[in-house]
């Protein structure tokens, strides 16, 4: 992030950087609208864990333009209780989603000359997300007795890929300020991922896990297959260093106070929006720390949610009896190491 020490924007033309990132998030509560869905949580006792490891290479083509390629590896898992259909047995279903994720290629350019506009600038970018992640992955489901096991598609929430080509649009702006601390930075970043594909051929959890009474409802049938949803993200914040730092060890230390807003809309910006999706959004405060030493940069940010909203998708709006819930993580940990060559 501009204003923090050593970013891709610091690279000279012809040079590149390599970074490794790790994100961990977990959740054990469903939300319905903006409230905790107590009844369903008591029935299922859900658990979700999302782990993503990525390698990102950035090449500085000119003083304004850079290209970045991100290769993620996804390791997700979930569990939930399945009632025993009148018997006292409660079966714990455990499912896993792991593979290479969807590869992202992005080109970015500074609007103003970065050598002349050091204290503030705007960067615009666009890119492609390729459907390299497994969007058909299956897991082993047991029946209510635990004796009959069937291979079926895992739920969309832990699927390593979404199955669609995505078009990313993003923008970044920053400005150095001297209030309340000298040489601090205000920044704003936003992106939107457009996914024109409507549905995949992967059965949704409406088919694999819901009560059979829902399956005969015409409104539910519009959500039999997974959709490829749009996504968006907005971040703003304030970056600052250690006041009056004289030690070279302290000069490389920066802190962040930020705000994050992320989610997936009910309807896509382009194309049809049929199929199963779990639209919603969350808002979070995002403290962070950055440390730079020579060509090395280490960062850690921890978004902490203060608002989580699960929205009704189109099938539910059309009268489907299954309530659309979403499991949100109360917080996540984002680690990254970058080396500039």
Description:
With 341 residues, the protein is mainly β. The chain has one domain (8-340): Autotransporter beta-domain (Lipocalin, Beta Barrel), CATH 2.40.128.130. Helices cover 8% and strands 54% of the residues. It contains six helices and 21 strands. It has helices spanning 38-44, 205-208, 212-215, 218-221, 248-251, 314-317, and strands spanning 16-27, 30-32, 35-36, 47-60, 65-84, 87-100, 104-110, 120-129, 138-142, 149-153, 166-177, 184-194, 199-203, 225-227, 231-241, 253-264, 280-293, 296-301, 304-310, 326-327, 332-340. Strands 1-4-5-7-8-11-12-15-16-17-18-21 form a twelve-stranded antiparallel beta barrel. It has a three-stranded antiparallel beta sheet with strand order 3-2-20, covered by helices on one side. A two-stranded antiparallel sheet has the order 9-10. It is elongated, with a radius of gyration of 22 Å. 33% of the residues are buried. Residues 2-8 have low confidence and may be disordered.
Summarize the structure.
The protein has 341 residues and is mainly beta.
* SSE pattern: EEEHEEEEEEEEEEHHHEEHEEEEHEE
Shape descriptor: elongated
Distance between the ends: 18 Å
What's the overall average pLDDT, rounded? Answer: 89
The SS-based structural class is mainly beta
Poorly predicted tracts of residues: 2-8
| Content of β-strand | over 45%
> Domains counted in the coordinates: how many?
1
Second rung of CATH, namely the architecture = Beta Barrel
- What is the percent of helical residues? under 10%
The CATH homologous superfamily name equals Autotransporter beta-domain
CATH fold name: Lipocalin
Oligomer: single chain
Strand order of the largest sheet: 1-4-5-7-8-11-12-15-16-17-18-21
**Largest sheet: number of strands, sense, barrel closure:** 12 strands, antiparallel, barrel
The helix tally amounts to 6
Number of strands: 21
Radius of gyration, CA atoms, in whole angstroms: 22 Å
CATH class: Mainly Beta
């Amino acid at each position: 992030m501009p204003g923090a020490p050593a970013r891709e924007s610091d690279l000279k033309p012809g040079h590149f950087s390599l970074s490794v990132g790790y994100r961990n998030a977990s959740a054990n509560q469903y939300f319905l609208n903006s409230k905790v869905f107590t009844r369903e949580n008591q029935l299922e006792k859900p658990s979700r864990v999302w782990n993503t490891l990525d390698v990102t290479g950035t090449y500085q083509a000119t003083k304004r333009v850079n290209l970045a390629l991100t290769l993620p590896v996804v390791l997700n898992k979930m569990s939930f209780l399945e009632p025993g259909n009148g018997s006292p047995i409660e079966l714990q279903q455990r499912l896993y989603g792991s593979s290479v994720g969807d590869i992202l290629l992005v080109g970015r350019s500074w609007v103003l000359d970065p050598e002349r506009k050091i204290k503030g600038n705007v960067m615009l970018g666009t890119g492609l997300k390729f459907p390299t992640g497994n969007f058909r992955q299956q897991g082993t489901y047991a029946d209510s007795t635990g004796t009959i096991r069937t291979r079926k598609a895992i739920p969309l929430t832990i699927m390593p890929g979404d199955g669609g080509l995505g078009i990313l649009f993003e923008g970044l702006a920053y400005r150095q300020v001297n209030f309340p601390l000298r040489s601090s930075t205000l920044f704003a970043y936003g992106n939107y991922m457009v996914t024109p594909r409507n549905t995949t051929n992967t059965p949704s959890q409406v088919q694999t896990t819901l009560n059979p009474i829902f399956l005969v409802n015409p409104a539910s049938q519009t959500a039999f297959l997974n959709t490829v949803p749009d996504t968006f993200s907005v971040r703003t914040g304030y970056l600052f260093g250690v006041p009056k730092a004289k030690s070279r060890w302290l000069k490389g230390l920066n802190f962040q106070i930020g705000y994050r807003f992320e989610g997936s809309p009910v309807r896509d910006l382009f194309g049809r929006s049929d199929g199963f999706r779990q639209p919603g959004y969350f808002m979070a405060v995002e403290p962070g720390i950055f440390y730079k030493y020579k060509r090395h940069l280490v960062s850690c940010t921890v978004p902490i949610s203060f608002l989580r909203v699960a929205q009704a998708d189109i099938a539910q709006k059309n009268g489907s009896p299954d309530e659309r819930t979403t499991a949100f993580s109360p917080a996540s940990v984002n680690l990254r190491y970058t080396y500039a060559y």
